[in-house]
Amino acid sequence: MSAAVVDGPDRPSGRARYWCLLAAVAVLLLSAGGAAPAAAQPARETVQTVYTPPQGADFSALSWVGAFDALHDKLSREYAFTAWKSVDWPALYAEYLPRVLRAERAGDLGAYYLALKRYSMELRDGHVGVLAVTAPAQRAIDDLAKRRAGGGFGLVATLLDDGRLVASWVKPEGPAAEAGMRTGAELVRWGGEPAAAALAHADASLGPAAPTDWRAVHEQSRYLVRAPVGAARRVVFRNRGERVTHGVRLTAVDDDFETLRMTDSRSVLGKGTWPERVVEHAVLPGGVGYLRVYFELDLPAELPGDHTPTLTLFREAVAELIAAQVKGVVLDIRGNAGGYDSMPPAFMASFYARRSFYEYQNYLDPATGTFQIWVGDDATGAFLDPGQGLWIEPGGQRFGGPLVALVDNGCISSGEGVAMGVKRLPQGKVVGICGTNGSFGLTGDWALMPGGLGVDWPFGQSLDHRKVVQIDSRRGGGGVTPDVTVPMTLRNAVRLYRGDDVVLEYGLAALRGMMVR
């Protein structure tokens, strides 16, 4: 099983198309079974601009501690959100240097990876990632995941809005089912602790970053019910409709990471999946248009599928829905992996009647430590129009009816810009169980590390019209929040893992309410 199920950043590329990011390199290299070339650096045309961005660095020839020191120095100077998030860099260094030192002394690459991973996760940013850039490093991460979380107990745990932790799915003939647990059972105690305490103590460091509190709890619930194969947990549960509790001993079995795959909330590209068509559309019963967008990138030429430019596909889909005289449109951007900075406002041109501000792109100048506003050119990598912003410029065919965007926490980066654009429309609403990922920075800074590992992070911010950071997470909040939040009731939790599209149902209901006004 690929480690993409249990580990890795939410995205293999960031918001700025003109940076060749480490994660994209890793995906292509590992699929080809190759090793990272020395030239894995930001690729862009030579354009004379006043702004000079940070440059990637290669620390792979240093000792593990030496590379960590160099990474910390670079990251603490060039991370875009140090002030926004009040990052205490000295405290992070003091906490994680001993872990790196122990890993180096033991020659334990898995421990080194975990130290770097936990260090990076302190920033709570889906654009900050530690990943394998060579096949041997990926195998080491796979082995680590297998040792630490290769066993499951045959259930998925979900925290409900009312505070109960429940088994929203129980595998037939799995350990939990054989012990008498049924789908919908309340987990009263886990591993000798009250369920709430056990959830709070669950180690989710093998999972992706958790920018928001919702994502943090989700990742902890995923890893609470994982353990080494053969490990035992004492569990107390209460089945639905029963007053009596049951105390049982569950033993983790090798399930090929089944529950981690079921609950993986990363973007479509974060999971390593490339669709054959970036934009899909249909007319649903009741005269409702459905539009699905997987990312704001063009499908790479080396992959199979429809290579029509994504923006063209989007505009053609909107035109066909208009021609079909749909009464409203559902725009599904769940798991949207982001991509080009310019594409979300270009999408929104199909829905906006008037010119509207989208963002300022605020980039760190590594020479001065200050920020500068430029417009990044997706095609060339040039930095243009200093001090200017990016705008939604209406043009072409426009759908002016009710519009609902479906979101989840796997909607990240430029995908969040699409959600933001819908939310700002008077005829637009956002619907989801939770908000988007809360990782909207301009990414592209990176470092190669020993052992075939790499680290990447954002060096730019997206600012609103007041020049305030927008969407990125802080203190557990962030992302584009739903106008209509799907309640996490026991019924909805069970239906989700039964395969019902509960979010789409709520989205259609919201759209029908808007259509009758």
Characteristics:
517 residues; alpha+beta; Pdz3 Domain; 2-enoyl-CoA Hydratase, Chain A, domain 1; 3 domains; eight-stranded mixed β-sheet; six-stranded mixed β-sheet; 15 helices; globular
Topology summary:
Layout: H1 22-32, E1 57-58, H2 64-78, H3 82-85, H4 89-106, H5 109-121, E2 129-132, H6 135-149, E3 151-152, E4 155-159, E5 165-170, H7 175-178, E6 186-190, E7 193-194, H8 195-201, H9 213-224, E8 226-227, E9 232-238, E10 246-251, E11 253-254, H10 258-262, E12 279-284, E13 288-293, H11 310-323, E14 328-332, H12 343-348, E15 356-365, E16 370-376, E17 383-384, E18 390-392, E19 403-406, H13 414-424, E20 428-432, E21 442-449, E22 453-463, E23 484-485, H14 490-498, H15 502-515
Parallel strand pairs: 1-21, 13-14, 14-19, 19-20, 20-23
Antiparallel strand pairs: 2-22, 3-8, 3-11, 4-5, 6-7, 6-9, 9-10, 12-13, 15-16, 15-18, 15-22, 16-17, 21-22
Helix pairs in contact: 2-4, 4-5, 8-9
What would a concise description of this structure say?
This protein is an alpha+beta fold and 517 residues long. It has helices at residues 22-32, 64-78, 82-85, 89-106, 109-121, 135-149, 175-178, 195-201, 213-224, 258-262, 310-323, 343-348, 414-424, 490-498, 502-515, and strands at residues 57-58, 129-132, 151-152, 155-159, 165-170, 186-190, 193-194, 226-227, 232-238, 246-251, 253-254, 279-284, 288-293, 328-332, 356-365, 370-376, 383-384, 390-392, 403-406, 428-432, 442-449, 453-463, 484-485. It contains 15 helices and 23 strands.
